[in-house]
Amino acid sequence: MTLNPLNSSNLEQLVLKRLTWHVFRMFYRLSACILQVQQIQEAAATLIVAYSGEKAREIQNHEMEVVNAWRNLQLRVEGRRTQLSNSTDLYRFFSMARDLLNWMTDLARQMESHEKPR
Length: 118
Prior knowledge:
There is one protein chain. This protein is mainly α and 118 residues long. It has a single domain, classed as Methane Monooxygenase Hydroxylase, Chain G, domain 1. It has two helices and no strands. It starts with 7 loop residues before the first helix and ends in a 6-residue tail after the last helix.
């Protein structure tokens, strides 16, 4: 596909492809992380039963650090997803506004030249 820089629909398609790729890559990486977090939780549960006292508390604290880091990552990903969605919506709005302004300018020019509006 040849990209005409003046064609806003081509540019919009390119932006949306990039956005889709970025979101897919992010979810792919997260799916690998969730398996690792689950494995850590399972291993911690087994070790907490096997150890007692201070070691068990230490294992539990490390598990909570991992779980909290995972939750923070999920919150950041959700924030990024929202930001990307908002950026896409803003781009579409600007594109529609530009198209409308161009149409209005063309219509005003036709009216000034007494041509019949299309």
